[in-house]
Amino acid sequence: MDTSTLLWVDLRVRPCANNLCAALPFGYQVHRTREPNAIPSAVSTLTPVVACFEYDQPDPAQLEILQLTRVGYPNLPVLMITVEHSEALAVWALRVRVWDYLVMPVRTEDLCARLAMLSASQRALANDPAVAALPAVDKAPLITKPGEGVMSSTGRLLPALSFLETNYSEKVSLGRVARLCGLGPYQFSRAFKHEQGTTFREFLILHRLSKAIRMLENSDASVTEVAFSVGFNDLSYFARMFRRYLGVSPSDYRRDKENRPPALPLPQIRLPEWPVAKFSYPPATES
Questions:
Q1: Which terminus of the chain has a smaller tally of CB atoms within 10 A, N or C?
Q2: Neighbours of 98 (CB within 10 A)
Q3: Of 206, 201, 163, 167, whose CA–CA distance to 181 is shortest?
C-alpha cells in the first residue's frame, strides 16, 4: 500500500500530552521532530507531502519557525495545529498562508480528511506549470500579544472577507469584522468602500441575496426558510431588499422563471487563488 510521508514538527511545551500523530493510520509515514534545525534536511530528503506544526502554547520564537518554513518552502503544504487559539493568531496564520488551521481537540478522522485534501492539493500544484508564479509569503510581524502586529496593506480585508463567506448566515457586526482586520470601524469602512466599491452593509446584503437567489433557483425551501438560512432574520426586510435590488418579490422570482429580471452584478468575495487557511471562527457576536 502506498504511504504518504508527513513531516510532524512538535513544538509543544508539553510534548507528552495527547500524541496526535501517533493516532494516524498506517497509510502515513510520520517523521516527527522537535528540532527546528532538522527541518531543512527532512524536507529535502523525505519530500513530505505535508508539514504539520503542532503547538500548545505558541510563542513568537516558535511561530517564527513555521514562518521561516513557509518562506523557504512556499509550495510545501503546512498544517498548523494549536491548543491555544485567538483571532490574532488565526489572522497571523492567514497572513503567513498556512494551508489549513486546526484548533484542538481534533478527531483523528477530521485530521485524516484535512491531510488527504492537502496532499491532493500538493500533487496538483506539483503538476501545475504556473506554480512558480504563486505569490511570495508575507513576512508577517510575529504576535506578541492579542491584536498586535497582524495587518499589512496588501490583502488587508482578507480576514473580514473570509469570515463573511463562512458566517454570512449569522449576525455579522461591523465592529467584529473590523477587529479581524486590526482596524477601527471607521478605518475599516473607508478601506472597504475603497477596495470593494460599496459599503460593507450593502455588500453583506447583496452577498446574502446572491445566496438566496441560488436557493430559490435550486431548492424547494420556502421563502421563509431561504430568508433565515442566508442571514435575514426579518422576513419583511428580506422581501423589501429582494424587491429593491431585483424588482420582484422572492415568490414571484421563483414562480416566473420565464420573466426573471437580468442577473444582478452581485459582489463576489474575492479570496486568493492560492490555498489559504480555512478557519473555524468562534460564533459571530454583536460588538
A1: N
A2: 24
A3: 163
Confidence of residue 258 (pLDDT cuts 50, 70, 90): low
Q: Which of 183, 209, 211, 213 is nearest to 195 (CA)?
A: 183
In this structure, what C-alpha cell is assigned to residue 134? Answer: 504563486
- Burial, 267: exposed, middle or buried (Cβ in 10 Å; 0-12, 13-18, 19+)? middle
Residue type, 23: A
Place of cell 510520520: 30
β-sheet with 78-82: strand ranges across: 28-33, 4-10, 50-55, 78-82, 100-103
Percent share of the chain, pLDDT over 90: 23
Q: Is the pTM of this model over 0.70?
A: no
Q: Are 76 and 46 in contact (CB under 8 A)?
A: no
Beta bridge partners of 82: 55, 103
**Residue-range domain boundaries for the chain:** 4-133, 200-255
Q: What is the pLDDT of residues 63-73, one digit of tens each?
A: 889 988 888 88
Q: Tens of pLDDT along 164-209?
A: 877 888 999 998 888 877 778 888 898 888 877 788 998 899 889 9
Contacts of 236 (CB under 8 A, 6+ apart): none
- Pick among 1.25.40.10, 1.10.10.60, 3.40.50.2300, 3.30.70.660: CATH of 200-255: 1.10.10.60
Burial class (CB in 10 A: 0-12, 13-18, 19+), 180: buried
8 A C-beta contact, residue 10 and residue 33: yes
Looking at residue 277, what is its pLDDT? 39
**What class is the 4-133 domain?**
alpha beta
